[in-house]
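On clarity, I found the account of how folds are encoded harder to follow than it need be. An entry of this sort, consisting of the sequence and the corresponding C-alpha cells, reads as follows:
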Amino acid sequence: MNDEYSIVLTTSDSDEETKKIANILLEKKLAACIQVSKIESYYTWENKINVDNENLLSIKSKKEDYLKIEKCIKEVHSYDVPEIVQIPIVNGAESYLSWINDVTI
C-alpha cells in the first residue's frame, strides 16, 4: 500500500496563487492535504542568479494522480517553468495513508 502515495512539490511567489492551487486540488479531490511553507529560493534563470521569497506547497496525494495534479497546477501557475516534482512516499502510517485514499478520488 505504501508505494501508492506521493508528495508533489510546487512553488509560487504569490499567496493568492498558492491558495488558488491548493483550493483547486482539494476541490477536485486530487490532494488530501497541502502544507504551505515560506521559503527563500536561490536559482539560475536566464543566465542570472536569483533569490526570491516563495511559498512551497507540499501536496499529499495518490501517486497515480500526478499527471492530473500537474495539469491543474500548470493551468493556474504564473511561472514559465514552475517546479512540479513528485516524491514517492516509501513508508507511512497505515492510518494516514488510508486517510489519503479515503478523501481523494
Observations:
- The chain has three helices and four strands.
- The two ends are 16 Å apart (CA to CA).
